[in-house]
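Internal tracking record. Fields below are filled automatically when a chain is submitted to the structure queue. Please do not edit lines marked as system-generated. If the sequence contains nonstandard residues, flag them in the REMARKS field before resubmitting.
Queue: standard
Priority: normal
Entity type: single polypeptide chain
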Amino acid sequence: MAQSGTADGLAAAAAAAQSGRCLPPVHLWHPAHCGDIDIRIRADGVWMHEGSPIGRAELVRLFSTILRLDPDGYHLVTPAEKLRIRVEDLPFRAVLMRREDDRLVFTTDVGDEVTAGTDHPVTVTIDAATGEPRPALHVRAGLQARVTRAVFYDLVEAAEPAGGRLQLRSGDAIFDLGAIA
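SYSTEM-GENERATED OUTPUT FOLLOWS
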């Protein structure tokens, strides 16, 4: 287990890398795996450190910019460190959606804005246990946002029926939301 001082080091590295709101090039960083850090992103989107919520939104935003999904799980990555964290569902939540011309633009709980399209698809799977739809949005580099219930209702309202299914258009992309009940 990494020491809690590592969290401060990660925050400092993320802050230095995040000049001008550009995302750090985590895909170019390949440090050795340093172990696990007691950071968990709960299914409701709350980031926890050592069992307590991280109360500073700015710190959560910084951590979100150095998050990477590798084959062995989610990691916070800097040029010098790679620490595994736990994610209960998906790392982000799509909490707002608006139309800009013919496109759908989503805002995540960490402040990312994502325009749905071929590079950022909206997908819907069905939870096997509950039968409930589980909508998601691709944010970047394999990282996804769970679309919140309120935003999903907005998507369903904006969708159009086609062949017994609900379809949603954003730009030139069409997304299937599921069968019409």
